[in-house]
Task: inverse folding
């Protein structure tokens, strides 16, 4: 096995890529939540000036990359690759959003784990010497996701208590071979894990075993445990999934209760905003990472964190056909020190 | 710019990864076509023994990987990563097909360019020293694609003359750091190119400018031209798109008429099988590459080829909303010599 791999599944990056800049965008609900001040842009118009919600999501993808570029003082031509994805059928949020920028494009589908998948591959492309600057990004939109996965929003369907709220949000990280940090030091690629959960309104429970699998593999590979990190963030398991991850680790004698949070529980206010089990969508963990988390690392709130977004790899068709819900979780370790 | 990159967009792999094994699967129509003898498995049952076509496509993804593993004498646990994608909403062909194998999974969405995207990223992961063995694969299914993009097959809708036929096929390449070849020597990542074509029944015309863009960038970066290769294969442009690519190069004074073919024109028999403009779908170029092309390299028919599959990044929703069709084309150079 190659020397860059430690243990079975984790890569320790030899020259950890640096965050060069980051940006996020949110909608009205995100602007009313506790992380509002960590957004670069909040837009009350769910159409973002466009005629359809799908075009709005594409606009978010384009704008969030432009903002990250501005903050780094770069032009689209300075970026070697953009790795992006979203929840829409055929990922039209990313492909239509990014088509005018002319940056070499690797399209990803990792459901709500996409921000982790993009950061992982972007880091490997840079550390491998194939790129100097790479953009990693993801988005979701409440109205496009409701129409596609459940019911069109104007129908006013009732949501079940375990349901999560798809964030209208996007986040972009520009990574570079050189920079002041924070740095991506480790990458663990997720496996598809399916424990037989069939309720598409309880995706936290479906994804929790994948988060447990990836985090456990990472801890084993690196010979570390939760106490070695200032904070650990999954996303977007919501309350129920967060609870299950802690339970699964408890059975192994590992205490996750002290510093483990979930992006889906951070984005909205449990009391003031009725989001049921919490936030979800590619944009939820993407916006939390490219706002609250990276700002916290920059400002010294944390020195080393794990970011492990989770995705539910279902479609309405797979659920109609009685399938259970496979989950996946990609992890990156982010540190202020190389 | 990093030394591994030559020109603006192409990576010359320092230790070109080797094809370790390859496999493909096709359906009834593929078994009646001119490439039938290059398939490892041909199945007359469009359900592949499953209850739905979507489950059938997942079965193809699983089986094609198992076949490639068998041929290399490997187990799923020997594979460091699998990179896979398909055309289905939320890519359920790959995620459901691969969930039981427990291999770290990077999900891709590149429409019909997915086989090229998977080979490109797999090669970079190996050359970067992050993996020893990686599987790259893609699939499509006529009946799942018709239902999703156009009309359910039982409706018997008429197809337009420029329409292509989505292949029921899958292909998998196992790449490794060590091996007897053929080798992936160069990778060029595609840009999203949109020239304003809006007819979803004429995807060859929509994707041709992307193929031209990537091939032109590759020729410029490597200071080579069509005559430096034994054969050049795009996929899946079909007849019309193939014509357009030759026209675009003709305007540059570059002759593509001698050795340029398209996977969509190879898979079916123009006279005996009425496929209109040709084959398409992720599985078309994936099956042609992992059969006819790699066998041809192995048997000495060619020594150096370009494989440049093209994807149309549309969805039914984007077409309903009046959007044009963005295309993308990822390229790999495959050679019997390192």
Result:
């Amino acid at each position: 096995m190659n020397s860059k791999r430690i243990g079975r599944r984790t890569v320790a990056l030899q020259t950890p890529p640096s965050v060069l800049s980051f940006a996020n965008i949110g909608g009205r609900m995100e602007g009313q939540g506790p992380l509002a001040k960590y957004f670069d842009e909040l837009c009350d118009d769910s159409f973002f000036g466009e005629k359809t919600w799908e075009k709005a999501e594409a606009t978010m993808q384009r704008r969030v990359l432009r903002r990250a570029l501005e903050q780094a003082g770069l032009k689209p031509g300075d970026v070697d690759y953009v790795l992006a994805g979203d929840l829409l059928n055929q990922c039209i949020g990313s492909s239509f959003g990014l088509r005018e920028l002319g940056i070499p494009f690797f399209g990803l589908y990792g459901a709500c784990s996409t921000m982790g998948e993009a950061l992982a591959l972007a880091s490997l492309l840079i550390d491998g010497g194939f790129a100097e600057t790479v953009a990693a990004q993801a988005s979701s939109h409440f109205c496009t996701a409701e129409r596609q996965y459940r019911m069109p929003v104007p129908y006013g369907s009732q949501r079940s208590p375990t349901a999560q709220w798809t964030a209208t949000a996007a986040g972009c990280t520009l990574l570079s071979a050189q920079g002041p940090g924070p740095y991506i030091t480790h990458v663990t690629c997720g496996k598809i894990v399916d424990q037989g959960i069939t309720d598409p309104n309880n995706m936290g429970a479906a994804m929790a075993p994948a988060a447990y699998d990836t985090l456990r593999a990472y801890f084993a590979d690196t010979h570390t445990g939760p106490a070695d990190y200032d904070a650990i963030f999954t996303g977007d398991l919501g309350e129920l999934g967060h609870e299950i991850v802690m339970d699964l680790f408890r059975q192994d004698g590992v205490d996750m209760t002290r510093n483990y949070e979930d992006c889906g529980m951070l984005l909205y206010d449990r009391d003031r905003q009725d989001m049921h089990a919490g936030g979800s969508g590619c944009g939820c963990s993407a916006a939390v990472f490219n706002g609250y988390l990276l700002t916290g690392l920059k400002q010294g709130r944390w020195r080393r964190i794990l970011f492990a977004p989770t995705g539910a790899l279902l479609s309405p068709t797979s659920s109609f056909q009685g399938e259970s819900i496979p989950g996946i979780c990609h992890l990156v370790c982010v540190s202020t020190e190389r």
